[in-house]
Design a protein that fits this description.
The complex is a heterotrimer of chains A (about 280), B (about 280) and C (about 290). Chain A is an alpha/beta fold and about 280 residues long. Chain A is built from 10 helices and 11 strands. In chain A, strands 1, 2, 3, 4, 5, 6, 7, 8, 9, 10 and 11 form an 11-stranded mixed sheet that branches. In chain A, α6 links the parallel β6 and β7. In chain A, α9 crosses α10. Chain B is built from 13 helices and 2 strands. Chain B is globular. Chain B is about 75% helix and about 0% strand. In chain B, α4 packs antiparallel against α5 and α12 runs antiparallel to α13. Chain C is built from 13 helices and no strands. The radius of gyration of chain C is 23 Å and the shape is globular. Classes of the chains: A alpha/beta (about 280), B mainly alpha (about 280), C mainly alpha (about 290). Chains in contact: A-B, A-C, B-C. Chains B and C meet through α1, α4, α5, α6 and α7 of B and α1, α4, α5, α6 and α7 of C.
Amino acid sequence: MLHNSLKMFVIMFFSIPLLFFASMPVTHADPLAAFEGMKGEIKISGGTAHIPVMKAAAKAIMSANPEVRISIAGGGSGVGIKQVGEGLVDIGNSGRQPTEGEVSKYGLKMFKWAIDGVAVVVHPQNGVKALTESQLKEIFSGKISNWKLLGGPDKAINLYTRDAASGTREVFWQKALGKGEILDKANVVVSNGAMKAAISNDPYGIGYVSVGHIDDSVSAVALDGVAPTMESVLSGDYPVARGLFSNTKGDPGPLTQSFLDFLFSPAGQAIVRDSGFIPVK
Amino acid sequence: MTRSEFLTKYSFMAAAIMSAAVPLAIFIFMALLGYPILTSGRLLGTLLGAWDPIHQSYGILPMIIGTFILAILAVAAAFPVCLGCAALVSDAAPGPVGRFLHAVVRMMTGIPTVVYGFVGIFLLVPVIREAFGGGSGFSLLTAALMLALLVSPTMILLFCDSFGRVAHTYRQAAAALGATTAQLFFFVVLPQARNGILAGVLLGLGRALGDTMIALMLAGNAVAFPDHVFDSARTLTAHIALIIAADFDSPEFRTLFLCGLTLYVLTTLLVLFVRLTMRLQGKRP
Amino acid sequence: MMRHTFKLFHIWVWGSTLLLLAATGTVIGFLLVRGWAGIGRELVFGETPVLAALMLQRPVFDGLFPAMVGTFALVLLSVGMALPVGLATGIYLAEYATGRLYFLLSLFFDILAGMPSIVVGLFGFSITIFLHHRFSGNIYPCLFISALSLAVLVLPYLIRTTQAALEAISPDLRLIGPSLGATRFQNIFHVLVPHSLKGLLSGILLAIGRCAEDTAVIMLTGVVVSAGIPKSLWGNFEALPFYIYYVSAQYADADELTRGYGAAIILLLLCAFLFGIAFWLQRRLSQRMFERV
């Protein structure tokens, strides 16, 4: 009898919380439903690494609700922060954390929805697969200027770098190059996509790009023995990592908040994962 | 005159003055927004220095040099070809062929520069990279070749125009003396059309100086001073396009207006030269 | 000696022409070869059904339609703004202006004609900043500002062709109106302008072509990568030439690159068409003039 009571008690003990939770309304089950009946425009600009995710999210949202217009521009992290601070756009994306100065000057609110790394990339046919930090510094400062010094063919190394507004460049310069010099003769490209296109077309080129953008058209180079993959970035083994931020000036408005909610929702985070980044959730 | 005539004349004049005010307004805006640099005493430093934001140097000299080298290369490459083509179209080719070629050249002026840049990236850049072993393929040479193709139709049409202006009587006289087409061209047409040719070259130069897309897509955009034609370099026009997205009040941003003013002054000078040469020829442009 | 120069001359002129034609042919041929396969319904409309897209019911993703509509809107707006001013100015130059004023005005318009397009774009951008700070914080680079800047760009084309078309009218024709007692304006409006319509039209077509192909101006005044169909004058927009530039630098995959080729072909065809008709009209005009003489 006591045996049975105990059983009953245990069952009740465990089932009540279950019933309790089962009866709760499931909030935000469908993040797209949050857009129902909304209309207006969301202007987004800034980091180019974010663009594939922005485009996919915009496609999902605009397909479900054509009254919502989302316009996406690039420009780099510096541009995103500046433009959202000046009120030109609703969301300013950045591939680096806004500095304290920027946050206080514009009253920024930051939302980090992915983790990404910055990897050194070369052409797929390039035999060089691993570099040390000091080699990397010498390559980008121009001291090592020929592939033969690295065991490759006797061809000049073609350097590719990003423009000044780039968060990718900032992270690369600080963490991979240790604030070393980048030769001023390097070709300047304007986005992650442009870097990828340039490297995939130049057998003797070297550059750096967001890990999420890496596909078969370029080959990632291991740094100090660690290959840049989603796992190594997440675990911290690969040190050149950064968050992908969406920043707003002050608190986001309702439409913008819905967009940000979508990014953090399972659907949004799935897009993040598909784009090659590490979701925060 | 009557009231309505007065009204129409002055409304047309108002329109004309409004149009004429536009180039003035452009100059004023550039000067206004570039004002801090113009007056801060940093003007010379900006015009003559190197571009190195990390070390607080915002000089646009590398871009000025890049612009000049690119434009001069392009026009130099295009000139002999354009002259020959124009000679063919206006003199050496039989009538119908000449007219057909003239029409073809006219159609060529319609090809957008972004299309040239696009093809340049995927066709010319790999060729330059492999064939000449020179760098990444993005270089002044690559951009100059495409730019030459861009300005050629305009230059050819201008040359043809000035060849056409050579008085018929001169040609008849030369023919009566038994001159061949080559002699006719070199000894009669060319000397007469000298000023027109110069004007054509200057206008081609202006076009080459002012082009943005080819330079942006093909020249590499490096900030260093270009050493040789295989170097990646940046022009004033590409610089503006690249930096435009940066900070509003930063010194980098201000240099943009200086770039704009430089381009404005350069092209205006070219226009004035052209007018001068046409004036010397005794023709109204 | 003479035989040699004769031969050399002919080698030079024919060689140059063939070189030029070959180079241009290579450019166009390369585009066609690489891009022809991509041309089709999907290039323009992506996966959205054509009718739904045309009725503006469903947005088009991964297709050129928004960019094409954007270019169309740009052209309409900018030529619409530039036409009255350009026409009136051209008329003024041809019919009213004399001496000092004519010289000065012509000089200014030559300067404007030689202005690099990026400087015009920078001008448009500066106006935006100016208005943004002085008047309303709601003013950003947008469709209207781009159209305005493009209007500035093509203004000299319209002025010149109007002026040329009017000045080409024979003196006899000009006397018809006044001899019948018409005022100057009546003469212009009822006789001269209709007579030079072909020249005017060719100028308009040239201006349209220039607006459709320009990239530098719109890059600085409001065009973006992805914005859908332009729904308002004060919003961002897409455009065909910018799409081509963007894809060439930063194509995400082979599909996007093929779309880029397709876009280049479409733009090329559009400009060829416009310029072709414009030149045909101009030729008809000058033929007419020769007949008269």
